[in-house]
Amino acid sequence: MLSFSGSRRAALLDEVSKAVSLAHAQDLSVVVNLHPNAATHRFNPRNLVGSADAPLFSDYLELVRILASRLSLSDKRRLAFEPVNEPPQACVAAGWPRVQREIVRASRGAAPDLALIVSGACGAMIAGLEALDPASVGDENVIYTFHFYEPYVFSHQGAPG
């Protein structure tokens, strides 16, 4: 989405809204997440959310605001927004709480009532969540999450190594 602006970005946002509506029409609840792609040289986790000084962090915050605003038009009882999936910082990274707080603030500015999903650093692994101080998030309407991939050989069957 960051690669596009204007009508192309609007069309992508419309597709997200349509997918959410379709899921809700089937009586499903929805989690929408933004997942920076490590396979790209420009729009990778380090450039987007690696720190509050990351080269594309302000662009990422703007996308978070836009998407949160769009999602706030949906049924908030059956929708949650995860503004960053699998943060790239080290498990006890000192900078992650600031980055996450700014992301939560951007989301809240656009969607005060939307449930947000947040995690600790460390790719959202349990060690990152254990190191996370809920006070650093600064928001009560959040769902805390972690990822558990053990045994990795099972959870990532067929994935390139």
Describe the structure.
The chain has helices spanning about 5-25, 45-50, 55-70, 95-110, 125-130, 135, 150-155; strands at about 30-35, 80, 115-120, 140-145. It has one domain (about 5-155): Glycosidases (TIM Barrel), CATH 3.20.20.80. It starts with 5 loop residues before the first helix and ends in a 6-residue tail after the last helix. The chain contains seven helices and four strands. About 45% of the residues lie in helices and about 10% in strands. A four-stranded parallel beta sheet has the order 1-2-3-4. It is of the alpha/beta class. The relative contact order is 0.14. The model has no long low-confidence stretch (mean pLDDT about 95).
CA-based gyration radius: 16 Å
**Helicity, as a percent range:** 40-55%
Q: What fold name stands as the CATH topology?
A: TIM Barrel
Helix and strand element order: HEHHEHEHHEH
**Fraction of residues in β-strands:** 5-15%
Shape annotation: globular
**Oligomeric status:** single chain
Order of strands in the sheet with most strands = 1-2-3-4
Overall pLDDT metric: 93
CA distance, first residue to last residue:
27 Å
Per DSSP E runs of 2 or more residues, the count of β-strands stands at 4
Number of domains: 1
CATH superfamily: Glycosidases
Low-confidence stretches: none
Could you say which structural class the secondary elements and strand pairing correspond to?
Answer: alpha/beta
